[in-house]
Amino acid sequence: MAPFLQAFGLALILLVWSGPLTAQTQTTSKRSTIETHNSTVSRVNGGRVGIISGGIGGTYIRIATDLASVLDDGDRVRVLPIMGKGSVQNITDILFLKGVDIGIVQSDVLSFMKRQAVHYNIESRIHYITKLYNEEFHLVSSSRIKNVKDLAGKKVNFGVKGSGTDMTASTVFNTLGIQVIPVHFDQALALEKIKKGEIAATVYVAGKPARAVSGLKAKSGLRLLPVPYGGKLQQTYLPARLTAQDYPGLVQKGATVDTIAVGAVMAVFNWRPGSARHQRVVKFIDAFFSNFGKFQTAPRHPKWQEVNLAAKLPGWTRFAHAGQWLANNQPQPSANLRQDFKSFVKAQGPRTALSQPQLETLFKEFERWQQTKQ
């Protein structure tokens, strides 16, 4: 028994000694695992930027997808396109929804929300990175409707409640003084209801060519209704035209449909400098502005061709870092470009003398044209 007891005693001593060591090893391993997990979470989320956009058939989601395709750079910058419900809801999401850093909205949304007193101090809390492009006002109706005045007293779809289309449609019809009966459906359902005669028309504000409209054909009993540009509409909107190139199924070759347009804006919350959210937005702006030329080539959406990063937006405040980046990276015109401009002006032949401010304005247009050509 003695050898057995000796062996048992030795095993017991080893067990007592190894117990604390095993517990200590497990604690160290657990702490290492936690630190590795936290490090991974920090690394993966360090460059994440959530961009709230629009519905699946609209231009916003395609623009957001282009941003992801061009700018994604591992963990340094990663763009997450998020489907949204439109401009009014997107502003609310930028303010309050977790994971949303930036949103694409219509330029008239701030004035609308200010009038409606939806959120307090909205103009100082929401800034813009850049104006994007113009979005056209699509008014698709039954072929039996001849002009916009024929819609008086009839049901017209204003899109999903809280959307940019809803906001702009309400503003436009009120401005025109045409009383319609607003209804709220998604565009696919609204088009079916027009074909069945349940509603007279649907409004869709989106950059042309919009997927929800591009597949439509006149033989299905639909048409694009002209919206006359004039009067008080000129205070808020821009003139625009839809052509057969945009919508060959609805517009005859050589014909045009007059309408209006509203600007699209890349909006952002005015994050406190130095905060993690501010740093993420700064990374995004640096990557976006530095790679902007890549957005103006195929296969990116043709609306990128309209974007001028330096364009100012009345009624909005530029996000500070975006303004600083533009100021620091403003290209200086070369002496050769100035000489080319002088030759260009001279080649136009005799004309009324231009003042120096007029020449500078014309030169900027010439410079922009040269950059586009390059």
- Give the CA-CA distance, first to last residue: 96 Å
CATH superfamily of the largest domain: Periplasmic binding protein-like II
Apparent shape: globular
Report Rg.
29 Å
- SSE class: alpha/beta
Unreliable runs, pLDDT <50, ≥5 residues? Answer: none
Strand content: 15-25%
Characterize the structure shown.
The protein is α/β, with parallel strands linked by helices and 374 residues long. It folds into 2 domains: 48-327, 3-Layer(aba) Sandwich (D-Maltodextrin-Binding Protein, domain 2); 335-373. Helix content is 43%, strand content 18%. Strands 1, 2, 3, 4, 5, 6, 7, 8, 9 and 10 form a 10-stranded mixed beta sheet that branches. Helix 2 (59-71) links the parallel strand 1 and strand 2 (78-82). Helix 9 (276-290) packs parallel to helix 10.
